[in-house]
Amino acid sequence: MVDLSVSLAGVELKNPVIPASGTFGYGREYAEAYDLNILGSFSFKGTTGEARLGNPQPRIAETASGMLNAVGLQNPGIDAVIAQEIPNMARLFQGPLVANVGGFSLAEYADNCAKLDACENVGILEVNISCPNVHAGGKNFGCDPHAAAEVTRAVKAVTKKPVFMKLTPNVTDITEIARACADAGADGICLINTLLGMRIDLKSRRPLLANRTGGLSGPAVFPVAVRMVWDVYEAVKLPIIGCGGVSSAEDVCEMMMAGATAVEVGAANLRDPYACKTIVEQLPRVCEQLGAARIAELTGAAHR
Amino acid sequence: MKKSWFTLEHTRQLTADTYEVVLSGDTSAITAPGQFVNLELPGKFLRRPISICNWTEDGALMLLVKVVGEGTRELVRCVPGTELDVLSGLGNGFDLSKTGAHPVLAGGGIGIAPLYGLARRMLNTGVTPTVALGFRTAKDAFYLEEFAALGCSLSVATEDGSLGTRGFVTDCIRALPECDYVYTCGPLPMLKAVHQLPQLTGGQFSFEARMGCGFGACMGCTVPTVDGYKRVCKDGPILYKEEIVW
Questions:
Q1: Active-site positions of A?
Q2: Is the pLDDT at A176 greater than 50, yes or no?
Q3: Each residue of A100-145: pLDDT tens digit?
Q4: For B2-90, CATH number?
Q5: How is domain B103-206 classified at the CATH fold level?
Q6: Are A170 and A196 in contact (CB under 8 A)?
Q7: Could you say which of A69, A95, B42, B172 has the lowest number of CB atoms within 10 Å?
Q8: pLDDT at position A10 over 60
């Protein structure tokens, strides 16, 4: 029997498979397909202080081996999430949840995290710092090491739960941002968010997405994510949640060898609602083939 | 929602760009006309949502497919025997229990597809539906014989007058002696024009959207309604007249 359990900054997960935020809603649709308790955890839809309607249509465009999305953080706001969604998720999934937190100011990040700190079934705070930042002149918090460190400190001050900073790949050097978060007290790093992209409709000669740009995800970004997880593993001594284009149990193991302790699965869920279930079921066989009695021993294996 | 393999039985070309595609498999998740299936196609990352034209409980699934891009072209080129991964029974579908004294089924172009299955089920309940179909030209028209074979009262409009009334499906509806309720599917401008017909007290409008998942998870296809944002794929694709915001 292969031991699939992993420990993520002190949070014990029965396996490293975590559906990624924005691809899993609040679990409800997937719970119609399978029992969510087979998962290590799941990262629910990014939550902001106020309700957000998101961007105009169209929000989705296909790409080679992937997709662009410009949903725009549609969510009912932190208070509605805590009042309605978190209790409902506790019924669907008995383990610790990953709460993905968005924000447009330091105060909003801190306020959201303080509220989530009181939620028993939230195990990890995943702080998404790739939202537009009104305080830093339109730049993303995640694109500037000082801003990233400020968010990390603001959030760490209000919670005892492990804080994972979710980084954007749309930077020159992601290790610089990861180091800034680590120095500011982050408990872990989650990477990567989507890569900024665009498609143009040939007939209308206009960008296909109403938002013009969107985030690229899917198998196309997997090697980029593996490389960045590798780099961040070398740069900081923190647990990593690897994310980006993971579609199979083999991908999970590869991401772990690059340095991830746990692995998020995103766009694959949209193509196949059973993607995470299949991955969890396949992991023991793949680990056996790799000669790993404990999946945790794969973390960073490619660096040794 | 059910994920299962369907076998392509046959494909029949109806017009220059429109095909009838018949599949066989497990149709048990399909509960109402107006629902859709989401098909996985080789080489394409996202599935293709296609409205259900008709289905039988013993496993026949009929789709009408308009070739609009690479994915749909790929689909109509599939040869009999091809196995396709299908998510079936998606969306809310038309609700036959909500109707008026004089309902009409109004379809434009490829949007007529779900109205065929709807018409058949209305006939099963003893109602002979009035059907109005709109096309660009006579060459683009399809499924007229199939609707006529059901015994529907059928009127057709083409934009250039090459077949039926010259004009739009709304002109067909205006010409009806009585009409107070509509079940409709077609391009957005058509849905909007139908929505504005003053004689309608209510109606069910089928929308399409670029979808990520097709089962309500990704928020890729949400649209504003009177009751807040709704997901075309999960809360729709049928929206009710009174909740639609243009």
A1: 131
A2: yes
A3: 999 989 999 999 999 999 999 999 999 999 754 445 545 579 999 9
A4: 2.40.30.10
A5: Rossmann fold (3.40.50)
A6: yes
A7: B42
A8: yes
ipTM, interface predicted TM-score of the complex: 0.93
Partners of A61 in the beta sheet? A68
For B47, the closest of A45, A65, A271 (CB atoms) is A271
Convert the pLDDT of each residue in B183-240 to its tens digit: 999 999 999 999 999 999 999 999 999 999 999 999 999 999 999 999 999 999 999 9
A211 min Cα distance to partner chain B (Å): 12
- Within its chain, how far is the Cα of A157 from the centroid? 22
Q: What count of CB pairs under 8 Å joins A to B?
A: 92
User: Quick one: pLDDT at residue A131?
Assistant: 57
Q: Do A25 and B223 lie within an 8 Å CB cutoff?
A: no
Rounded to an integer, the average pLDDT of B149-156 is 94
Contact residues on chain B for A23, CB-CB shorter than 8 A = 213, 217-218
Look at residues A178, A194, A186, A175 and name the one whose alpha carbon lies nearest to residue A130. A194
**Residues in chain B closer than 8 A to A271 (CB atoms):** 40, 45-47, 213
Residues in chain A whose Cβ is within 8 Å of chain B: 22-25, 28-30, 32-33, 45, 53-54, 57-67, 69, 71, 74, 218-219, 267, 269-274
Tell if the pTM clears 0.90, that is, is over it: yes
All domains of chain A in start order, with CATH: 6-303 (3.20.20.70)
Answer whether A222's CB lies under 8 Å from A244's CB: yes
**Does A32 sit within 8 Å of B1, measured CB to CB?**
yes
Whether the CB of B2 is below 8 Å from some CB of chain A: the reply is no
**pLDDT tens figures, A49-89:** 999 888 999 999 999 999 999 998 899 999 999 999 999 99
What residues does each domain of chain B span?
A: 2-90, 103-206
Give yes or no for a cis peptide into A192 (omega within 30° of 0): yes
Average pLDDT, chain A: 95
CB-CB neighbors (< 8 A) of A218 in chain B: 45
**DSSP string of A145-204, one letter each residue:** HHHHHHHHHHHHTT-SS-EEEEPPS-SS-HHHHHHHHHHTT-SEEEE--PEEE--EETTT
CB contact under 8 A, B216 and A269: no
CA distance A167 to B206: 39
